[in-house]
Write a structure and sequence with these properties.
The complex is a heterodimer. Chain A is built from no helices and eleven strands. Chain A is mainly β. In chain A, the strands form two sheets. In chain A, strands 2, 4, 5, 9, 10 and 11 form a six-stranded mixed sheet that branches. By secondary structure, chain B is mostly beta strands. Chain B is globular, with a radius of gyration of 13 Å. The chains are: A mainly beta, B mainly beta. Chains A and B meet through strand 4, strand 5 and strand 9 of A and strand 5 and strand 10 of B.
């Protein structure tokens, strides 16, 4: 059974810092891996989607990497801003096209 | 801009009552998902439909939950009878036609509290 783990569970950093969020998964048979952002009381917004054949994706200050063989992904946020404060969720799409989510990393960027 | 809508946004009910949650997927999307989010379990897939046909509802308690798509613009999730352990945020998501790997677009959720 696929399990997705995210470390750390919570992170507080001063504005301007570069930071890395980690995601690991137990079964490497995935179609893709996605990073989502969730603001309090809101739904999820897709940030980056990495296909299983890809190594990384970039969007603005965000860069996500995927190492399928080791079951790991990282989300790198450059020059963090208070507006980046949210919960970041990692999800893998398994062989039956279902998304399996991690429990999230709650990020606070202090002004 | 196109987005998934869900109603109601908040629902408080008493144990034993019927609860119906509605979702309008993005126009043109043919796959609809229902998820439940709790502090203890995180986000879990309950059921999903493609072209209005149920493909998988293995995550859903069958005795009290039911999901339907009466038409392409409406998906419903019903709980009857509701129990306090059903308290959670229920999200609907939709995805465009493709090979099944497309990005899912999430609605704002229905926050359910069963007393």
């Amino acid at each position: 059974k696929q399990e997705v783990t995210q470390i750390p569970a919570a992170l507080s950093v001063p504005e301007g810092e570069n930071l890395v969020l980690n995601c690991s998964f137990t079964d490497s048979a995935i179609y893709n891996l996605q990073w989502f952002r969730q603001d309090p009381g809101k739904g999820l917004t897709s940030l980056l989607l990495i296909q299983s054949s890809q190594r990384e994706q970039t969007s603005g200050r965000l860069n996500a990497s995927l190492d399928k063989s080791s079951g790991r992904s990282t989300l790198y946020i450059a020059a963090s801003q208070p507006g980046d404060s949210a919960t970041y969720l990692c999800a893998v799409m398994d062989s039956s096209y279902k998304l399996i989510f991690g429990s999230g990393t709650r990020l606070l960027v202090r002004p | 801009d196109a987005r998934v809508t869900q109603t109601p946004r908040d629902k408080v009910t008493e144990m034993g009552q019927e609860v119906t949650m509605r979702c309008q997927p993005i126009l043109g999307h043919n796959t609809v998902f229902w998820y439940r989010q709790t502090m203890m379990q995180g986000l879990e897939l309950l059921a999903y439909f493609r072209n209005r046909a149920p493909l998988d509802d293995s995550g859903m308690p069958k005795d009290r939950f039911s999901a339907e798509m009466p038409d392409a613009t409406l998906a419903t999730l019903k709980i009857q009878p509701s129990e306090p352990r059903d308290s959670a945020v229920y999200f609907c998501a939709s995805a465009p036609p493709g090979q099944g790997q497309e990005t899912q677009y999430f609605g704002p959720g229905t926050r359910l509290l069963v007393l």
